[in-house]
Design goal:
352 residues, mainly alpha, disordered N terminus, BPS1_pln, BPS1-like protein
Length: 352
Amino acid sequence: MSRPHDLPHPFFHFGNPFRMISPKGSNLSKRLLLLLNNFEETLAGRLKKLNPKDKDGVLSLSWMKLAMLSLCETHNDIKTLITELELPVCDWDEKWIDAYLDISVNLLDICNSFSSEISRLNQGHLLLQCVLHNLDSSSSKQFIKARSSLDAWRQHISSKNPRVENCSTILNKLVESLDLPKVKNSAKGKVLMRAMYGVKVETVFICSVFASAFSGSARKLFDLNVDDKYMWAQAFTGLQTSINSEIRNLYSSGRFTVLKELEAVDTSVKKLYPMIQDGVDPVEVEAFQKSVSDLARRAEGLSQGLDLLTKEVDGFFHVVLTGRDALLCNLRECGTVSDTKLGCKVVERVQS
């Protein structure tokens, strides 16, 4: 699997604002230490909550929903921290600003990719509804239509989404920013950059898990090494090991998906399909009706889970977008104009 130190080309050629920075020897005031500790303790608790108690929680849509919600909360926390640090944007290095805008639009691209895949999976629900509608009748013609819809569903679900496949390139860029030469900064800057490292690590991890789940491949996963000096390091390592290991185990066993709800629907489809090949034998009517009911229940569970996940992905998109817009607004108030063209470029990429 890819690791940060294996990537040859640094993302921030000018120095990395997300470099791991230890507070030791940095003469941080009690107030700054308190802000940093509160941020890291909160992040640690948040990561612990994401660690499933058993393997059945990997990867359910409910877990993915919680993971995306956790990411939104962490990104909101960093906004709050910036405010509490009273670190004016006017003092930020222009190259850091450009990098932040570039990273933010990469995250928006990832959100759009995830949304497109969720929408694609939800389209399959329409095919399942056709199946269930046709199975209301005992007519052989309706059974033929039902088989055709099941074939279409299986083909639709097994197809690949090129937008999800491209997520790896974007994630590689984000990983590259995790381990670069140290940047000298003020005490407030060091607190911010240390906190931003935590944000980046959680973001890369969760997005890589999503990319792996949606692409049907464990190759989208990253194994990130985090120094024990961070309060959240142990919680993150435990979470990463638990989730990544189980995903790899599932794929190595031949599963076409690690999404629990999608796998459940596929199991029902495989069980029902032979029953409608030549019509239902009177002896098998009860088993047939149970299979139809199971498919209906599981299909509805998949659809509802995808709808809830869509809301959280859209929420994360909004968090990233408003953060970028707030930065541009602050730059204009500071009289900075060099960001204008880049801002337009960002908008063009988001809308394309």
